Description:
Layout: H1 2-14, H2 18-21, H3 24-33, E1 40-50, E2 53-64, E3 71-77, E4 83-92, E5 95-101, E6 107-108, H4 124-128, E7 138-145, E8 148-156, E9 162-168, E10 174-180, E11 186-199, E12 202-212, E13 217-228
Antiparallel strand pairs: 1-2, 1-13, 2-3, 3-4, 4-5, 5-6, 7-8, 8-9, 9-10, 10-11, 11-12, 12-13
Amino acid sequence: MIRSLSFLLFSLLSLLPLQAQQNGDQLLEQVRAQLPKMPLRMTGIIRSRDRDGEQEMGLITELHFGAPLPYCEYQILDGFGDLLIRVRVNWVSGKTFFEQWGPEGERLAAPKPDDEILDTGLTWRDLSLAYLWWPGAKWVDEDKVKTRNSYVLELPVPEGGTLKLWVDQKAFFVVKAEFYSPDGKRLRKMEVDSIKEIRKDFWILKDLLLRDYPNKRRIGIRFTQVDELNADGSVKEVPASE
């Protein structure tokens, strides 16, 4: 009987997709491999709503995952389009480092991952994707997020608590993330609401929805424009046929 059960368990496991039988760290490595290698500039809007009302700020994100040392830059703008702060996130040997400047280019103290971004309800952890480099991920389940079949990963948060990630089984990008406190309370949820094809078979985030449960706040990010950049930072002209 024990042999029969063992054989049945082995048979069921062998039917799982190969990626699902890999460990969580390998799956995250595949997610990182799908990050765009060409430099991109994504221009959008942050909208946050809580019991005290709503507010809106501009967001300019530059992705440089193909650089020798990957990095991203974020500019937060006020309602008139004026720069408030600029933050750069660097990844060195899998570790995340932050730098921050003010509107006049003055260097400011580096933010911490959990620091709120100018009363928007967002944190730098939400934007930086630093969790893609965290070790200790475990594949725990499979699930469906809207129409997307997903692997569910669980990994420890460096400062304490747990993160659950839902990874699209075909495209290998994160479609949902939830942060939990050490005692198991859900703190935050991020979910991709829509994506946009910017060239044939290449899709990028368009709408991201976030929930801050302790503060009863809802945050939305909508990217309205995506540009590919040249090496000097200028916008690359794409032929109409593309």
